[in-house]
Amino acid sequence: MGAGFEIGRDGPGTVVVGVDDSEAASHALGWAVGTARRQGSELVLVTAVPLPGASIGFVPPPLDPPELSPERAAVLNEFLPGRWRYLTRNGEAEAELIAVAHELKADAIVVGRARHPSRHMLGSVASRLVRHADTPVVVVP
């Protein structure tokens, strides 16, 4: 057995999933909830709120974080009682998802596939994560 092999654990211990109000993020969350439930994993939902003006060097004060809907929280409590949490971060989604995954030593990052054609031209969060993250990335269609 090589260094770092984890005995007694099948599947991921922590799964990070990027969430927003898009249909793609809902699909990613559904997949991540099912995986976390079956594997006994902790699920960490992350919403990244971009800071306006940050790209030109101006860093405004943090924005009020979005709330998790009561309906979504109820579903999470039903399927993953005590095994999920919701974090909001101010910054770009790719960087914040990678940072959370590193902080929590997550086993996977789950995101939805971009559906809008302009996102493919500009580079979607999913495609940037696949290129830059050193944590496994699951892209859910």
Shape, principal axes of CA atoms = globular
Residue runs with pLDDT of under 50 for 5 or more positions: none
Percent helix: 25-40%
Q: What is the helix tally?
A: 5
User: Strand order across the biggest sheet?
Assistant: 3-2-1-4-5
The average pLDDT score comes to 85
Radius of gyration: 16 Å
Reported for the largest beta sheet, the result is: 5 strands, parallel
Structural class comes to alpha/beta
Order of SSEs: EHEHEHEHHE
Instruction: Classify the beta-strand content into a percent band.
Output: 15-25%
E-strand count:
5
**Termini distance?**
36 Å
Helices and strands, with pairings:
Blueprint: E1 14-18, H1 23-39, E2 42-49, H2 70-79, E3 84-90, H3 93-104, E4 108-112, H4 117-122, H5 125-132, E5 137-140
Parallel strand pairs: 1-2, 1-4, 2-3, 4-5
Helix pairs in contact: 3-5
